[in-house]
Design a protein that fits this description.
The protein is of the alpha/beta class and about 350 residues long. It is built from 11 helices and 14 strands.
Protein backbone atom coordinates (compact mmCIF):
# COMPACT_ATOMS: atom_id res chain seq x y z
CA UNK A 1 0.00 0.00 0.00
CA UNK A 2 1.35 3.41 -0.93
CA UNK A 3 2.21 5.55 2.08
CA UNK A 4 0.16 8.73 2.37
CA UNK A 5 2.34 11.78 2.96
CA UNK A 6 0.58 14.72 4.52
CA UNK A 7 1.41 18.03 2.87
CA UNK A 8 0.81 21.13 4.95
CA UNK A 9 -0.15 24.22 2.99
CA UNK A 10 -0.98 27.78 3.92
CA UNK A 11 -4.67 28.55 3.50
CA UNK A 12 -5.27 31.91 1.83
CA UNK A 13 -8.10 31.51 -0.68
CA UNK A 14 -11.67 32.27 0.25
CA UNK A 15 -12.70 28.66 -0.37
CA UNK A 16 -9.92 27.25 1.83
CA UNK A 17 -10.70 29.67 4.65
CA UNK A 18 -14.39 28.82 4.43
CA UNK A 19 -13.55 25.10 4.65
CA UNK A 20 -11.26 25.79 7.63
CA UNK A 21 -14.01 27.72 9.39
CA UNK A 22 -16.42 24.85 8.85
CA UNK A 23 -13.98 22.29 10.27
CA UNK A 24 -13.12 24.51 13.24
CA UNK A 25 -16.77 25.12 14.11
CA UNK A 26 -17.69 21.43 13.67
CA UNK A 27 -14.96 20.72 16.21
CA UNK A 28 -16.72 22.90 18.78
CA UNK A 29 -14.31 25.81 18.47
CA UNK A 30 -14.86 29.42 17.44
CA UNK A 31 -13.38 30.72 14.21
CA UNK A 32 -11.47 33.88 15.17
CA UNK A 33 -10.34 36.53 12.73
CA UNK A 34 -7.02 38.25 13.31
CA UNK A 35 -4.61 35.36 12.81
CA UNK A 36 -1.24 35.82 11.11
CA UNK A 37 -1.16 32.47 9.35
CA UNK A 38 -3.59 29.61 8.76
CA UNK A 39 -2.35 26.18 7.70
CA UNK A 40 -4.19 23.04 6.68
CA UNK A 41 -3.73 19.46 5.56
CA UNK A 42 -5.75 18.03 2.68
CA UNK A 43 -6.39 14.41 1.80
CA UNK A 44 -8.05 13.50 -1.48
CA UNK A 45 -8.99 17.14 -1.87
CA UNK A 46 -10.71 17.36 1.51
CA UNK A 47 -9.43 19.51 4.37
CA UNK A 48 -8.76 17.15 7.29
CA UNK A 49 -6.81 19.39 9.69
CA UNK A 50 -6.26 23.07 10.34
CA UNK A 51 -4.31 25.31 12.73
CA UNK A 52 -3.50 29.01 13.03
CA UNK A 53 -0.93 31.31 14.60
CA UNK A 54 -1.61 34.80 15.92
CA UNK A 55 1.71 36.21 17.10
CA UNK A 56 2.99 33.63 19.57
CA UNK A 57 -0.46 32.12 20.18
CA UNK A 58 -1.34 28.83 18.47
CA UNK A 59 -5.07 28.55 18.00
CA UNK A 60 -7.97 26.92 16.16
CA UNK A 61 -6.30 23.50 15.95
CA UNK A 62 -8.95 21.15 14.58
CA UNK A 63 -8.71 17.66 13.09
CA UNK A 64 -11.41 15.53 11.51
CA UNK A 65 -12.39 12.79 14.00
CA UNK A 66 -11.43 10.06 11.51
CA UNK A 67 -7.83 11.34 11.46
CA UNK A 68 -7.30 12.03 15.15
CA UNK A 69 -4.79 10.12 17.24
CA UNK A 70 -1.99 10.12 14.68
CA UNK A 71 0.87 12.45 13.84
CA UNK A 72 -1.17 15.17 12.17
CA UNK A 73 -1.45 17.46 15.21
CA UNK A 74 2.32 17.24 15.74
CA UNK A 75 2.97 18.14 12.11
CA UNK A 76 0.69 21.15 12.31
CA UNK A 77 2.14 22.38 15.61
CA UNK A 78 5.71 21.95 14.34
CA UNK A 79 4.91 24.01 11.25
CA UNK A 80 3.24 26.77 13.26
CA UNK A 81 6.12 26.91 15.77
CA UNK A 82 8.77 27.01 13.04
CA UNK A 83 6.91 29.82 11.28
CA UNK A 84 6.69 31.61 14.60
CA UNK A 85 10.44 31.27 15.09
CA UNK A 86 10.92 32.79 11.63
CA UNK A 87 8.68 35.69 12.70
CA UNK A 88 10.94 36.38 15.70
CA UNK A 89 9.12 34.66 18.58
CA UNK A 90 10.83 32.26 20.97
CA UNK A 91 7.90 31.25 23.18
CA UNK A 92 4.49 29.94 22.14
CA UNK A 93 1.19 29.41 23.94
CA UNK A 94 -1.85 27.29 23.34
CA UNK A 95 -5.24 26.88 25.02
CA UNK A 96 -6.76 23.44 24.88
CA UNK A 97 -9.18 21.18 26.72
CA UNK A 98 -7.75 19.43 29.82
CA UNK A 99 -7.99 16.00 28.18
CA UNK A 100 -5.58 17.12 25.43
CA UNK A 101 -2.91 18.52 27.76
CA UNK A 102 -0.79 15.35 27.70
CA UNK A 103 -0.75 15.42 23.89
CA UNK A 104 0.95 18.81 23.94
CA UNK A 105 3.19 17.92 26.88
CA UNK A 106 4.50 15.07 24.72
CA UNK A 107 5.51 17.81 22.22
CA UNK A 108 7.53 19.63 24.94
CA UNK A 109 4.83 22.09 25.96
CA UNK A 110 4.71 22.91 29.68
CA UNK A 111 1.46 23.28 31.59
CA UNK A 112 1.18 26.83 32.97
CA UNK A 113 -2.30 26.89 34.45
CA UNK A 114 -5.49 24.87 34.37
CA UNK A 115 -9.15 25.66 34.79
CA UNK A 116 -12.12 23.32 34.78
CA UNK A 117 -12.66 23.58 31.02
CA UNK A 118 -9.38 24.91 29.62
CA UNK A 119 -5.64 24.60 30.18
CA UNK A 120 -2.86 26.96 29.09
CA UNK A 121 0.45 25.48 27.93
CA UNK A 122 3.71 27.04 26.80
CA UNK A 123 6.49 25.95 24.46
CA UNK A 124 9.93 27.44 25.03
CA UNK A 125 10.37 27.75 28.84
CA UNK A 126 9.68 31.48 28.68
CA UNK A 127 8.19 31.64 32.18
CA UNK A 128 11.28 30.03 33.70
CA UNK A 129 13.54 32.45 31.81
CA UNK A 130 11.48 35.48 32.86
CA UNK A 131 11.51 34.49 36.54
CA UNK A 132 15.25 33.77 36.45
CA UNK A 133 15.92 37.14 34.79
CA UNK A 134 14.11 38.84 37.69
CA UNK A 135 15.63 36.76 40.50
CA UNK A 136 17.61 39.75 41.79
CA UNK A 137 14.30 41.47 42.56
CA UNK A 138 13.32 38.81 45.10
CA UNK A 139 13.13 40.30 48.63
CA UNK A 140 12.43 38.71 52.02
CA UNK A 141 9.55 39.91 54.18
CA UNK A 142 5.82 40.44 53.81
CA UNK A 143 5.42 41.07 50.10
CA UNK A 144 2.49 42.36 48.10
CA UNK A 145 1.68 42.95 44.46
CA UNK A 146 -0.24 45.37 42.28
CA UNK A 147 -0.83 44.84 38.56
CA UNK A 148 -1.48 48.00 36.55
CA UNK A 149 -1.74 49.06 32.94
CA UNK A 150 -1.57 52.85 33.57
CA UNK A 151 -2.89 54.16 30.29
CA UNK A 152 -1.77 56.72 31.52
CA UNK A 153 -0.54 56.85 35.17
CA UNK A 154 -2.97 58.84 37.32
CA UNK A 155 -3.52 59.90 40.94
CA UNK A 156 -5.72 56.82 41.19
CA UNK A 157 -2.77 54.54 40.41
CA UNK A 158 -0.57 56.54 42.78
CA UNK A 159 -3.13 56.19 45.59
CA UNK A 160 -3.44 52.43 45.09
CA UNK A 161 0.32 51.88 45.06
CA UNK A 162 0.96 54.21 47.99
CA UNK A 163 -1.81 52.60 50.08
CA UNK A 164 -0.59 49.08 49.31
CA UNK A 165 3.06 49.92 49.97
CA UNK A 166 2.19 51.02 53.53
CA UNK A 167 0.84 47.53 54.27
CA UNK A 168 3.84 45.41 53.20
CA UNK A 169 7.61 45.30 53.43
CA UNK A 170 7.99 45.16 49.65
CA UNK A 171 5.46 45.95 46.95
CA UNK A 172 5.91 44.53 43.45
CA UNK A 173 4.22 46.71 40.87
CA UNK A 174 3.78 44.73 37.66
CA UNK A 175 3.18 46.95 34.65
CA UNK A 176 1.36 45.34 31.72
CA UNK A 177 3.94 44.80 29.00
CA UNK A 178 1.46 44.17 26.19
CA UNK A 179 1.67 47.10 23.78
CA UNK A 180 -1.99 47.30 22.88
CA UNK A 181 -2.82 50.48 24.78
CA UNK A 182 -2.84 54.03 23.44
CA UNK A 183 0.18 54.92 25.58
CA UNK A 184 3.16 52.71 24.61
CA UNK A 185 4.70 50.41 27.22
CA UNK A 186 7.96 52.37 27.53
CA UNK A 187 5.97 55.56 28.23
CA UNK A 188 3.66 53.85 30.73
CA UNK A 189 6.61 52.29 32.57
CA UNK A 190 8.44 55.63 32.68
CA UNK A 191 5.41 57.49 34.03
CA UNK A 192 4.93 54.91 36.79
CA UNK A 193 8.62 55.08 37.70
CA UNK A 194 8.53 58.87 37.89
CA UNK A 195 5.24 58.85 39.77
CA UNK A 196 6.36 56.51 42.59
CA UNK A 197 10.09 57.22 42.83
CA UNK A 198 9.66 58.54 46.38
CA UNK A 199 8.13 55.26 47.66
CA UNK A 200 11.19 53.32 48.74
CA UNK A 201 9.74 49.81 49.01
CA UNK A 202 8.25 49.66 45.50
CA UNK A 203 9.84 47.33 42.94
CA UNK A 204 8.76 47.84 39.32
CA UNK A 205 8.61 44.88 36.94
CA UNK A 206 6.98 44.28 33.58
CA UNK A 207 4.47 41.45 33.21
CA UNK A 208 6.07 39.89 30.12
CA UNK A 209 3.69 37.26 28.68
CA UNK A 210 2.50 36.04 32.06
CA UNK A 211 0.10 38.55 33.63
CA UNK A 212 -2.71 40.22 31.64
CA UNK A 213 -1.22 39.54 28.22
CA UNK A 214 -2.47 38.39 24.84
CA UNK A 215 -1.39 34.91 25.96
CA UNK A 216 -3.08 34.77 29.37
CA UNK A 217 -5.99 37.19 29.05
CA UNK A 218 -6.49 38.40 25.45
CA UNK A 219 -10.06 39.64 25.88
CA UNK A 220 -8.86 42.15 28.50
CA UNK A 221 -7.76 44.32 25.59
CA UNK A 222 -11.16 43.97 23.90
CA UNK A 223 -13.13 44.67 27.10
CA UNK A 224 -15.49 41.81 26.29
CA UNK A 225 -17.39 40.37 29.23
CA UNK A 226 -18.33 36.87 28.08
CA UNK A 227 -17.76 33.26 29.20
CA UNK A 228 -14.45 33.12 27.31
CA UNK A 229 -13.21 36.20 29.15
CA UNK A 230 -14.14 34.65 32.50
CA UNK A 231 -12.22 31.48 31.69
CA UNK A 232 -9.19 33.54 30.66
CA UNK A 233 -9.22 35.66 33.81
CA UNK A 234 -9.36 32.52 35.96
CA UNK A 235 -6.34 31.10 34.12
CA UNK A 236 -4.48 34.41 34.47
CA UNK A 237 -5.14 34.55 38.23
CA UNK A 238 -4.25 30.88 38.68
CA UNK A 239 -0.95 31.33 36.85
CA UNK A 240 -0.11 34.32 39.04
CA UNK A 241 -1.07 32.55 42.27
CA UNK A 242 0.56 29.20 41.55
CA UNK A 243 3.79 30.18 39.78
CA UNK A 244 4.59 33.90 40.02
CA UNK A 245 3.55 34.80 43.57
CA UNK A 246 5.52 31.93 45.21
CA UNK A 247 8.69 32.91 43.30
CA UNK A 248 8.58 36.49 44.64
CA UNK A 249 7.18 35.53 48.06
CA UNK A 250 3.97 37.50 47.41
CA UNK A 251 1.23 36.88 49.97
CA UNK A 252 -1.06 39.86 49.25
CA UNK A 253 -2.50 41.24 46.02
CA UNK A 254 -3.99 44.71 46.05
CA UNK A 255 -6.62 46.08 43.68
CA UNK A 256 -8.76 49.17 43.47
CA UNK A 257 -12.53 48.89 43.58
CA UNK A 258 -14.03 48.90 40.09
CA UNK A 259 -17.30 50.85 39.72
CA UNK A 260 -16.99 51.47 35.97
CA UNK A 261 -15.68 48.47 34.01
CA UNK A 262 -17.67 45.23 34.24
CA UNK A 263 -14.77 43.18 32.87
CA UNK A 264 -12.28 44.49 35.46
CA UNK A 265 -14.84 43.97 38.21
CA UNK A 266 -15.15 40.37 37.05
CA UNK A 267 -11.36 40.02 37.18
CA UNK A 268 -11.42 41.30 40.76
CA UNK A 269 -14.07 38.71 41.57
CA UNK A 270 -11.90 35.94 40.11
CA UNK A 271 -9.02 37.05 42.34
CA UNK A 272 -11.32 37.18 45.34
CA UNK A 273 -12.27 33.53 44.76
CA UNK A 274 -8.96 32.03 43.60
CA UNK A 275 -6.14 33.81 45.45
CA UNK A 276 -7.06 32.60 48.98
CA UNK A 277 -6.91 29.00 47.74
CA UNK A 278 -3.17 29.60 47.23
CA UNK A 279 -2.67 31.41 50.53
CA UNK A 280 -2.71 34.89 49.01
CA UNK A 281 -4.78 37.61 50.64
CA UNK A 282 -6.99 39.66 48.33
CA UNK A 283 -7.04 43.31 49.43
CA UNK A 284 -9.45 45.76 47.80
CA UNK A 285 -8.78 49.48 48.22
CA UNK A 286 -11.48 52.08 47.64
CA UNK A 287 -10.82 54.11 44.49
CA UNK A 288 -9.61 57.68 44.89
CA UNK A 289 -12.15 60.36 43.98
CA UNK A 290 -11.84 63.71 42.27
CA UNK A 291 -14.42 66.49 42.63
CA UNK A 292 -16.28 65.14 39.59
CA UNK A 293 -16.09 61.45 40.52
CA UNK A 294 -13.75 58.45 40.43
CA UNK A 295 -10.27 59.07 39.08
CA UNK A 296 -9.56 56.76 36.16
CA UNK A 297 -7.27 56.58 33.16
CA UNK A 298 -10.32 56.51 30.92
CA UNK A 299 -11.43 59.84 32.40
CA UNK A 300 -7.98 61.29 31.68
CA UNK A 301 -8.19 60.11 28.07
CA UNK A 302 -11.69 61.58 27.80
CA UNK A 303 -10.48 65.00 28.97
CA UNK A 304 -7.62 64.93 26.47
CA UNK A 305 -10.04 63.94 23.72
CA UNK A 306 -12.24 66.92 24.58
CA UNK A 307 -9.12 69.14 24.72
CA UNK A 308 -9.92 70.07 28.31
CA UNK A 309 -6.28 69.93 29.34
CA UNK A 310 -6.67 72.51 32.12
CA UNK A 311 -8.61 69.93 34.16
CA UNK A 312 -5.90 67.27 34.04
CA UNK A 313 -4.03 68.50 37.13
CA UNK A 314 -6.88 67.11 39.26
CA UNK A 315 -6.36 63.64 37.82
CA UNK A 316 -2.64 63.10 37.20
CA UNK A 317 0.65 63.79 39.04
CA UNK A 318 2.96 66.53 37.82
CA UNK A 319 5.23 64.06 36.00
CA UNK A 320 2.33 62.62 34.00
CA UNK A 321 0.93 66.08 33.31
CA UNK A 322 4.29 67.27 31.99
CA UNK A 323 4.32 64.37 29.55
CA UNK A 324 0.71 64.86 28.46
CA UNK A 325 1.40 68.51 27.62
CA UNK A 326 4.73 67.78 25.91
CA UNK A 327 5.55 67.63 22.23
CA UNK A 328 6.27 63.92 22.66
CA UNK A 329 2.62 63.32 23.56
CA UNK A 330 1.21 65.39 20.71
CA UNK A 331 0.45 62.32 18.49
CA UNK A 332 -1.48 60.75 21.38
CA UNK A 333 -3.44 63.96 22.01
CA UNK A 334 -4.31 64.22 18.33
CA UNK A 335 -5.37 60.58 18.16
CA UNK A 336 -7.69 60.98 21.15
CA UNK A 337 -9.17 64.19 19.81
CA UNK A 338 -9.63 62.67 16.35
CA UNK A 339 -11.33 59.55 17.74
CA UNK A 340 -13.72 61.76 19.68
CA UNK A 341 -14.63 63.82 16.61
CA UNK A 342 -15.07 60.61 14.53
CA UNK A 343 -16.78 58.13 16.87
Amino acid sequence: MEEIINVITQLTSGADIAAAKSLIERSGLSFEEGFDELFGIHEAGELIAVGARAGNILKMLAIEPSHQGGSIVGELVTTLVMRGFDAGFDTFFIYTKPQYATTFEAMNFNLLASQEKVVLLEYGNGLKRWLTANSEAVRPGVNGAVVVNCNPFSFGHRYLIESAARQVDNLYVFIVREDRSLFPFDVRFRLVREGVRDISNVILLDTSNYIVSSATFPTYFLKKDDPVARIQMELDVTLFASRIAPFFGITRRFVGTEPCCKLTDGYNDAMRRILPVYGIEFVEIERKQASSGVISASRVRELIGRNELSQLNEYVPASTLAFLLSAEAEPIRKQLQLSRSNP
